[in-house]
Specification:
Elements: E1 4-8, H1 14-17, E2 24-26, E3 35-38, E4 54-57, H2 67-72, E5 76-78, H3 85-100, H4 103-112, H5 119-126, E6 139-143, H6 147-158, E7 162-166, H7 172-177, E8 183-184, H8 188-194, E9 197-200, H9 214-218, E10 224-228, H10 237-246, E11 249-254, E12 267-269, H11 278-298, E13 319-326, H12 331-341, E14 346-354, E15 357-364, H13 370-377, E16 382-389
Parallel strand pairs: 1-2, 1-3, 3-4, 4-5, 6-7, 6-9, 7-8, 9-10, 10-11, 11-12
Antiparallel strand pairs: 13-15, 13-16, 14-15
Helix pairs in contact: 3-6
Bound molecules: 1,4-dihydronicotinamide adenine dinucleotide and 2-oxoglutaric acid.
2-oxoglutaric acid binds near residues 59, 61, 84 and 276.
């Protein structure tokens, strides 16, 4: 009899799903699932039922998931940091080439002459229209030096570009991985002023929304190329259209075409292919499934975006009680009070917090009565209680 049910809102690579043991079964009904796997499907308006303990985003961006609502319902949301970064990096490098050499124009032109005689001669005669520039020696600005930004910066540097990077919140791990040849700047204005190409690799947040707009574009060099493999809403489309018309922007490469940009002159639109590689899809699926299993079976949280990471170690026996709760005073005293009132000895306790939310894992040697978790649930500020037992 399976213990857990999972629901996939998007197709998830089989190599990941195969990691689910016989204790798991897939369900078509999200309402009866313990865990949800998702890629880009929007969950923002979705009703989320009590039984859902975890959502894993097989990917990086989590702007399609209502993170705060989930946290408030005790649902832990995971993503898979870095798992698709190489796939995106490779397409960004292709984007640099597409914007610099008129490859798309040239390919389309060849299709228009494919029925003509002596194509080779026509090609040599007409190719001058599609001449371009080389990226070697040009300046690239990378905004956001996370998993993808660092790979893009290093790869472009190896291709002979002078690379500037800006990330006020860069992690120690990413800083270690950044080539020492990258020029680190404190202000994005340095990037706008200096760079011939600017590539965006930040999450979509309130403070990054429409960061490329009339004002920031006015600080850029004439003919600057903007690459957006992050999210469409990072760019103000009306301001971009105006800048493309005036020549302020030479080309806008986007992996997120929308109703406005798909038809805009000067836009190179790619249908969100950054992470659409076998390797990235496999990496994301494997990481997402492992994280779900660790959480459901052991209460371990790794790579959550709305709860603290918490490694309580492998569950080895007895009972493990996990509590998702608000990060407010006096919670631990109340939890331990419930156990002591029933004369239950706690063998291990771990508590972590992140922003407004916290997570506590309590191990005991034997079993507990259902009344004990019911008591924990009634404590003000407790959002979800799970018991893991053999
Ligand atoms: N085209 C595609 O298929 C894909 C797109 N993405 C998008 O790319 C974004 C970045 O992905 P990763 O590099 O994997 O994420 P990441 O979390 O490793 O890196 C994001 C970086 O942006 C930095 N950042 C945040 N706010 C900033 C600001 N205001 N200014 C400068 N830096 C800022 C953070 O400090 C972090 O280092 C994702 O959030 C997602 O929207 C991610 C994967 C695939
Ligand atoms: O799953 C996908 O193809 C989308 C990848 C993406 O945009 C992300 O990981 O943020």
């Amino acid at each position: 009899m399976p213990k857990f049910k999972y629901h996939c809102l998007n197709p998830i690579a089989g190599v990941g799903l195969k990691l689910f043991s016989e204790n798991y079964e897939t369900t078509e009904d999200i309402k009866e699932s313990d865990a949800v796997l998702v890629r880009s499907a929007s969950m923002l308006e979705m009703e989320l039922t009590d039984n859902i303990a975890a959502i894993a985003r097989a990917g990086a961006g989590v702007n399609n998931i209502p993170l705060d609502r989930c946290a408030g319902d005790g649902i832990v949301v995971f993503n898979t940091p870095g798992a698709n970064a190489n796939g995106v990096k490779e397409l960004v490098i292709a984007g640099l080439m597409l914007a610099s050499r008129n490859i798309v124009g040239g390919i389309n032109w060849v299709q228009t002459i494919k029925e003509e005689k002596d194509i080779a001669k026509l090609v040599e005669k007409g190719k001058a229209k599609f001449a371009g520039k080389e990226i070697q020696g040009k300046k690239l600005g990378v905004i956001g030096l996370g998993a993808i930004g660092v790979l893009v910066a290093n790869a472009a540097n190896r291709l002979g570009m002078e690379v500037y990077g800006c990330d006020p919140y860069i992690s120690v791990e990413h800083a270690w991985n950044l080539s020492r040849d990258i020029i680190s700047v404190k202000s994005k204005d340095d990037i706008y002023r200096e760079c011939d190409y600017i590539s965006l690799h930040v999450p979509l947040l309130d403070d990054t929304k429409k960061m490329i707009n009339k004002e920031t574009l006015s600080k850029c060099k004439d003919g600057v190329v903007i690459l957006n493999f992050a999210r469409d809403l990072l760019v103000n489309d009306e301001d971009m259209e105006e800048a493309l018309k005036s020549g302020k922007v030479g080309a806008y490469v986007t992996d997120f075409p929308n109703d406005k940009t798909a038809a805009m002159e000067g836009v190179i639109a790619i249908p969100h292919l950054g992470a659409s590689t076998e390797e990235s899809e496999d990496n994301c699926a494997v990481m997402a499934v492992k994280q779900i299993k660790d959480y459901l079976e052991h209460g371990i949280i790794k790579n959550s975006v709305n709860y603290p990471d918490c490694d309580a170690g492998t569950f080895t026996g007895g009972t493990r009680v996990t509590i998702n709760h608000k990060n407010i005073p006096n919670m631990l005293t109340q939890f331990t009070g419930v156990f002591s009132s029933e004369n239950i000895n706690i063998s291990n306790l771990i508590n972590k917090s992140k922003g407004d939310y916290a997570y506590t894992v309590i191990d005991i040697e034997g079993s507990i009565a259902s009344g004990t978790s019911a008591k924990l649930e009634t404590i003000d500020g407790v959002l979800k209680v799970r018991t893991i037992s053999e």
